[in-house]
Amino acid sequence: SRLISSTQNWFLLAAMGIMIGLIAGALNVITAWLGSIRVGHCSGNFYLSKAFCCWGQDEESCSGWSSWSTFGFLNYLIYVGISLFLSFTAAILVKTYATSAAGSGISEIKCIVSGFVMEGFLGWWTLLIKSIGLPLAIASGLSVGKEGPSVHYAVCVGNSIAKLVRKYRRSASKAREFLTATSAAGVAVAFGSPMGGVLFSIEEISSVFQLSTIWKSYFCSLVAVTTLAAMNPFRTGQLVLFEVTYDTNWHYFEIPLYIVIGIFGGIYGIVVSKFNIRVVAFRKKYLANFAVREVFILSLLTASFSYFNEYLRLDMTEAMQILFHECDSNFSHPICDPNSKKIPLLASLIFATVARMGLTIITYGCKVPAGIFVPSMAAGATFGRALGIIVDSYYQNHKDSFIFQNCSATGRCIIPGTYAFLGAAAGLSGITDLTVTVVIIMFELTGALRYIIPTMIVVAITKSINDKWGKGGIADQMIKFNGLPHIDAKEEFTFDTTVESAMSTVLVAFPSDPNEAITVEQLKSTLSKTKFRGYPVIHSSTNPKISGFVSRSEVELVVKNYEGVSNDTLCNFGSTNPTSASEVDFRSILNRSPLTINIDCPLEYVLEIFVKMGPRYILVEHEGVLVGIITRKDVLRYEYTLHSSHDVNAIQQSQ
Amino acid sequence: SRLISSTQNWFLLAAMGIMIGLIAGALNVITAWLGSIRVGHCSGNFYLSKAFCCWGQDEESCSGWSSWSTFGFLNYLIYVGISLFLSFTAAILVKTYATSAAGSGISEIKCIVSGFVMEGFLGWWTLLIKSIGLPLAIASGLSVGKEGPSVHYAVCVGNSIAKLVRKYRRSASKAREFLTATSAAGVAVAFGSPMGGVLFSIEEISSVFQLSTIWKSYFCSLVAVTTLAAMNPFRTGQLVLFEVTYDTNWHYFEIPLYIVIGIFGGIYGIVVSKFNIRVVAFRKKYLANFAVREVFILSLLTASFSYFNEYLRLDMTEAMQILFHECDSNFSHPICDPNSKKIPLLASLIFATVARMGLTIITYGCKVPAGIFVPSMAAGATFGRALGIIVDSYYQNHKDSFIFQNCSATGRCIIPGTYAFLGAAAGLSGITDLTVTVVIIMFELTGALRYIIPTMIVVAITKSINDKWGKGGIADQMIKFNGLPHIDAKEEFTFDTTVESAMSTVLVAFPSDPNEAITVEQLKSTLSKTKFRGYPVIHSSTNPKISGFVSRSEVELVVKNYEGVSNDTLCNFGSTNPTSASEVDFRSILNRSPLTINIDCPLEYVLEIFVKMGPRYILVEHEGVLVGIITRKDVLRYEYTLHSSHDVNAIQQSQ
């Protein structure tokens, strides 16, 4: 049966991977079509996106593709109109059918994986609405990315498929590995980066670290990405919309410039998350009932002024493709034209950076499916390219300077595209506070093997700045801001008190001494009056030594089995000499060795036990006598009362 | 002071990274020179290796480089003679100065990082001898790699530098993060793969998982690799000896072939580790006193018959460079010649695979610095190339088959080099049982972005086979075989018993009741008669409730402070009403809330506590009364008595 169970697990994982891959492929195609329909249509083949319509031709001089009108201003109005329609539809869908499909979802998934329950957050409805709303939101041109939502729909797939199997429906903790594994697949299909996905699930999502979980993430990512590759949604045989390779090596004199990019990433992360939290607070307070109207206005704002800047108008992935590009003979874009005026180009890039930051700050968290990864990368990329162009023009004017003595005389020395690439890494790392994951994702996006050291340097600088002045990744900040119940397993804690400060006193405990045995009626009344998920069992009220612990659900099950018995029947919670033959026997469900700690135990250590061992509760004793009980919720409540005044009533713990 | 401490940590890590990078650079240069001196010398510039001597020229027609003699057989004798001399020197050095410098060292490092002490294993002497012995052993042509030893010398650097600081000299647990971080740097410099190093430290070395440790590994790897890159030991600007890129995409019909390669990897891992363990057992039993002679004979055997096969004679990295290569116009090697006879080529490759396996089985574990990663990759590469050549020749003869319909008509379809590349991944994964690390290392070695899915498929198949029929990676098998004390934190455990079966009964406990207080003389006698690292404190012998725990070292410190007192003075272990004014007070060192569990607690859970929480001991109680004590050593002893009959007296636990 162990073999069957293990085989079943792999089948489930494969099914999840395939479904995630199929959804991702479909979304890619739909997003591309919706995005291009804003600027025109394919004559005769209305269902083709611009890229497919102009297949094999240059997009500029493509014969099949027509703009909506020959009149520029009308085109502009249609562009804005369709954008508004798309975002409006997404907002309506989210509001009507699944409010939990709004936003990115990563914060909530972290909490769920760490052991808390949020009803419906990972259900079929959320999956459906997130999958439909995501392409609408992205194609509408809002400053949102697909990575967070991809993780969310992937985890929905994992949860929904796991729940089809009885044993996972009953135990949330067993299903958790599937959630981690599918989160890896979500990132994998979003970025076309299977290893990046695995590392994301390790570094960001998983709360405990087990090799078996990594191996499941790996497998699920691989299946999802292979499915996506087999669907070949871009018809280029590639997993990502673009692939860049750099042939030139970097130089040591560029390291200070990499440090500048890293500093930008750190500042970007700190500024955007700080102001975004303020916007979210404002939205929560004043805009809660105007979600659709808010999206409408955001979309209007974004579409109407993005139209006039190339890097804002284009889909962010397409913009990055241009920005990352090395200027060579195969690539004829104004950005590479050596004769073009540098100042307007720079102004355009810097404007795009600032505008992207502003749009991201006001957009992230609005009520459509919305990720923040890609906008952050896009902002970093425009900044990086601007810096690269400045450095390159300095080089062109000072070729004989001793700084540039290592540049090869014939070839190019400064590749502005690599600065854009590193800027994207800095932006991503700045907003997420991730390191290893970012390096691997950037690496898989571009295969820029030669640039691994620069990427690592940039990310290290960004991370240092975030550690020193920032408050962690945006997902963690959102968790704190929303008062979500989450203890980060991978960080260290400092409390300066003992468990006594945070524990709850025991209100109800069942006696095991037959002389004090309670009746079924008393038990039922206790069950209906209290909502605890379990009850300690003590020896007797005069000798309250710990005898064990019973969980509520199991007590209810036993009571149900004895349904016919009289209400006066006594309950046996562990006594070896029964008082009457007709007692209700709870001994089989009694956990005789519950986790117990001394009342003098430091709270820090208790937290560590919760995080690393994952128990539901710990009994607190003093010389063997029960004096209290502590749950994760107690620790969190204590932490919140200590640090802030957030709503802790929303906290609901699983198991 | 917190800031200073943190700054100090980063300085230490940077110092470690720089030192590791410098050593790695020096070793690369020395190894290349020693390796090429076996076949000839550079006229006029004796100190140059063949690659530097022939810089800018074709190595075949290089004017500066001369063979030792014009007479072929004499060359052969000189080749064998120098090989023997090199390996002999390495063996003598290891035997005379640092026996712990033998072998790979990864198994032992895993144990040390998980909390056990091995005196001298990570000292300056080991560092010195490992660094000198490694190039000698590799250049001698023995079937050994440099990765395991690189990790070992890197961790020696980490340990030795950390020990220069007082606080890390005193606390092994605090120094442990440095060991993990430097192990990452070790792999990073050996493979030129900084991210692979980080993942190696996560997947293989670290016993608990904390983001701060990952971040330290990342930083240390980055510094080490940047130092190595700045030294530029190969003068190619590259971190690895070779860089391969593939321009052609893979095809779906190749997946079954990738599965074959994956199966090879699994079989390779299982066969090599199984027979290697037997050879190691034989060596331990019969060859313990003949370590140098054994190395001499191994070297004679290897050198004398490797000379006649190109893939065995060459340095393994050079051989892999050739094997990985795509056949194009820039690469004129017999392996790519379309007119060459396929049968002798195949025979040569298959012979090299089998011989490499045999040599690795008998060599790994001999008394010179020796890793098994690169030999495994080399064996996989020859196998993969052979398979690739077979498939390619089938394709050449059946171009019209429907299988090959997706091959582009003009270009090449089957790239045998990619099969060699995937074979190397399979070999590496088969022997180490690692997944994520292997994919990232292969990726960083070659930048083969397009081949990430095939690599993942191959590694997944290898891993599945290992999981089903193998016994884990060679490092873990060596740990078990040698009876080293190690609990793998990342695996799940199954014991079907309670803590009672494995715990020790308490032989000595100090009473806190003043009426039973022991005298200083009694205490001293107890300390000298027993070797425990700590003692429980109970209420009194008639009421043995747990009062706390004192550690031996702190008790000794208190005793030392009270040196002048009479031997009749009573000891106070926690009483609040002292019996006499002149008592020796141990209350300040008493841990009043030691970790305690119930005697009915499952042993599995206890093991989980040890692994995840890392306590030194757990007290076992029944209704508040002390009934036993359990340490990691007890759990391991129980496991060993259950599973095998290894020597458990060698186990020594830290802290």
**Quaternary structure:** homodimer
User: Could you give the order of strands across the largest sheet of chain A?
Assistant: 3-4-5
Decide which structural class fits the backbone of chain A.
mainly alpha
The share of residues in extended strands of chain A comes to: 5-15%
Shape of chain A: elongated
Distance between the termini of chain A: 25 Å
Biggest interface: A-B, 67 and 68 residues
Q: Counting H and I runs of at least 4 residues, what is the number of helices of chain A? A: 24
Instruction: Tell me the CATH architecture of the largest domain in chain A.
Output: Orthogonal Bundle
User: What's the CATH topology name of the largest domain in chain A?
Assistant: Clc chloride channel
Cα Rg of chain A: 29 Å
CATH superfamily of the largest domain in chain A: Clc chloride channel
Number of strands of chain A: 10
Number of domains of chain A: 3
CATH C-level of the largest domain in chain A:
Mainly Alpha
**Residues in helices of chain A, as a percent range:** 55-70%
- The stretches of 5 or more residues of chain A where confidence is low (pLDDT under 50) are 644-655
Largest sheet of chain A: 3 strands, mixed
Describe this structure in words.
The structure is a homodimer of 655-residue chains. The first copy, chain A, has 655 residues and is mainly alpha-helical. Chain A has three domains: 2-231, Orthogonal Bundle (Clc chloride channel); 252-481, Clc chloride channel (Orthogonal Bundle); 499-643, CBS-domain (Roll), CATH 3.10.580. Helix content of chain A is 56%, strand content 6%. Chain A has 24 helices and ten strands. Chain A has helices spanning 2-37, 50-53, 72-97, 106-113, 124-139, 147-163, 166-170, 172-191, 194-205, 211-231, 255-286, 291-306, 310-313, 316-324, 342-363, 373-397, 416-432, 436-446, 452-469, 474-481, 520-529, 552-561, 603-613, 632-643, and strands at residues 40-42, 65-67, 510-511, 534-538, 546-551, 571-572, 584-585, 596-598, 617-622, 625-631. In chain A, the strands form four sheets. Chain A has a three-stranded mixed sheet. In chain A, strands 8-9-10 form a three-stranded mixed sheet. In chain A, strand 8, helix 23 and strand 9 form a beta-alpha-beta unit. In chain A, helix 11 crosses helix 19 (452-469) and helix 14 (316-324) runs parallel beside helix 16. The longest helix of chain A has 36 residues, at 2-37. The model of chain A is unreliable at 644-655 (pLDDT under 50).
